[in-house]
């Protein structure tokens, strides 16, 4: 098997430590290890070899099923699996984490167990972080809130832990390179970062290698930027004029600037025939230049334009910034390596578009999906003629598709991925990090040659397979960066992953904290994980602490912004506590949230009528959940979307990104909550089907529930409609009280749903918010157009929607 040669125990900087393995976790000297370093070295080596061994196992989908057909293999896997689960359970219990890892028969699937592991990892890492800090003499509880621009010492990046593929050594190695006080690079940026809750608009304003010229919207960008000053009219009028102008450009604004060129790009013949494989130069004999001036960047661009290919990689930082920062670009030609300080040259990087979009020059990346987005987000850079070695690795069906595997496979180079998660903002860059960064591109052109040769060999000289890799690479270069958009449903998506049963109060707390965190993260330009890690947010929601001190107790270590705003957070929790208490089952959470949002408008569960909830509760025989479910389903049913017949069958899943892509029609529909309405329908399709029978039997009953809902909720809907868009709901006892009084008015109709209006939002403190007005214009579009859009859209996208 191809992967068997990867099964060696240790490599790189890690060597086996002293003799005796000792599992006891301690930051003190322990038996068998003469000092902490020896223990750490041993530990890292062990973790690394375990990770390697696990990666060497036949992968699911590939050879796994075949091996699985041998009883010996099956038995071995099962016994090892049990052992591992047992060990994991023990560790988790030792740390006081929830653990039912071994409970194989439980209905809860792999996903829940995965979440359990992630939670436990977070807890354990945090604990380790605290202990290490204590050993360092850092006392967290006395830590002052840092002035803007400075970073408090050492915080474990737990959110990365989530994404990681299970390499236990990563967090530790990250820590090794975590600088204590990195100045915020954002402060030096010439153009301020735009964290506003508005869609991303490409940064491009000059388009080299264009066959279709850049739309005037972008070429006039410089003029447009000066709008507020150059228009000698009141601000509101200036805004209006600006909107009128921008409105003409809606389509252009959200299109891929090189869509036309990419659509018309065909891979040149010579790139589809047998390549001459050119060996890489030894790294030690290769010149490496660090580029941090405009002059050098211009010279580099000129050099690149003359080449037929070069390799590119990026390093990115995402913890102390909302949208993330591209910190480094590595470029390798056949002769030289270049490391570009993209924090320094951020505003000048666009000049590389000349080389990057030149169809005559191949740009080789490994796993370019994120890189393509980061290039657009930070520099307005695009790639025409991309070759992605990750895609080639897939086509060749290699055992693994990571860069370190390719380096080993093709170059017999042992790479050391330790620095992958280092803090790439550090300046000056330590030598070892420069070396690491170079390795990411230095060998890539040779790998590109070798892979092309193999792809042709594989198909006996026929270019089909190679062509498919070029095509897949082109698809990646067509990817568009989409900014994270805060919507009414965002919190539900996250809550669903928590797999915790929340009652109405807890769910409300989660919703309010989520909005607080999003707003603050945008405002302070921090990641949401830095402001308040999800597991802490979940814990606060779960415990609903009565005192501010209780909130602090839910967080360990306490994030600086939580400490600073603990009173604000306390008010939010209090507001949640004032919600009528109703138990909600695990999968009922979304259902309830949905019912609440349908009846009382998005983001407005705080105004829910206690009477209504009580009525539901008492009528359902002592909070019998299944009955409550039924009722919820009936209510949903009674609000059945009249346009359902136009919607796709309930088993299609909607591409998540399309929601945030203004050029996709889904975005428009989403803004109108038509889509969210459908999605919720889809989410509850199963329950609804079950409920359908009983619904039909009890049509009259449904009418009653509906009327009652209308009676208690109707009037509030009206008022709510004028208040939606409050992105950070302020605690409002007054509203809560008035919500208790039943009021009489018309039943809530579907047409009265009000979309989340960003223009009303507190987030308008951010730049660019005026842009949202034109989005709201969509509201007035003819309903018929919408139905058409929905039909076309769902037909068009259907094949793209992965099944659940
Ligand atoms: P690479 O292409 O491997 O050099 O990775 C580029 C950037 O992606 C790194 O600088 C990290 O910011 C990010 N990254 C890579 N791997 C991971 C990971 N496992 N988890 C989170 N971020 C990652
Ligand atoms: Mn990369
Ligand atoms: Zn890299």
TrEMBL record:
It comes from Anabas testudineus (Climbing perch). The chain crosses the membrane at residues 780-797. GO terms for cellular component: cytoplasm; nuclear exosome (RNase complex); nucleolus; nucleoplasm. Residues 503-583 form the HRDC domain. Its cofactor is Mg(2+). Residues 1-20 have a biased composition (Polar residues). Keywords: Cytoplasm, DNA damage, DNA repair, Exonuclease, Exosome, Hydrolase, Isopeptide bond, Magnesium, Membrane, Metal-binding, Nuclease, Nucleus, Phosphoprotein, RNA-binding, rRNA processing, Transmembrane, Transmembrane helix, Ubl conjugation. This is Exosome complex component 10. Its main location: cytoplasm. It comes from the Eukaryota. One of its GO terms (molecular function) is metal ion binding. InterPro entries: 3'-5'_exonuclease_dom (IPR002562), Exosome-assoc_fac_Rrp6_N (IPR012588), HRDC-like_sf (IPR010997), HRDC_dom (IPR002121), HRDC_dom_sf (IPR044876), RNaseH-like_sf (IPR012337), RNaseH_sf (IPR036397), Rrp6-like (IPR045092). Belongs to the exosome component 10/RRP6 family. PROSITE patterns: HRDC. GO terms for biological process: DNA repair; exonucleolytic trimming to generate mature 3'-end of 5.8S rRNA from tricistronic rRNA transcript (SSU-rRNA, 5.8S rRNA, LSU-rRNA); histone mRNA catabolic process; nuclear polyadenylation-dependent antisense transcript catabolic process; nuclear polyadenylation-dependent CUT catabolic process; nuclear polyadenylation-dependent rRNA catabolic process; nuclear polyadenylation-dependent snoRNA catabolic process; nuclear polyadenylation-dependent snRNA catabolic process. The gene is EXOSC10. It is found in: Cytoplasm; Nucleus, Nucleolus; Nucleus, Nucleoplasm. Component of the RNA exosome complex. The catalytically inactive RNA exosome core complex (Exo-9) associates with the catalytic subunit EXOSC10/RRP6 (via its N-terminus). Exo-9 may associate with DIS3 to form the nucleolar exosome complex, or DIS3L to form the cytoplasmic exosome complex. The RNA exosome complex interacts with cofactors C1D/RRP47, MPHOSPH6/MPP6 and MTREX/MTR4. Interacts with MTREX; the interaction with MTREX mediates the association of MTREX with nuclear RNA exosomes. Residues 1-28, 710-754 are annotated as: Disordered.
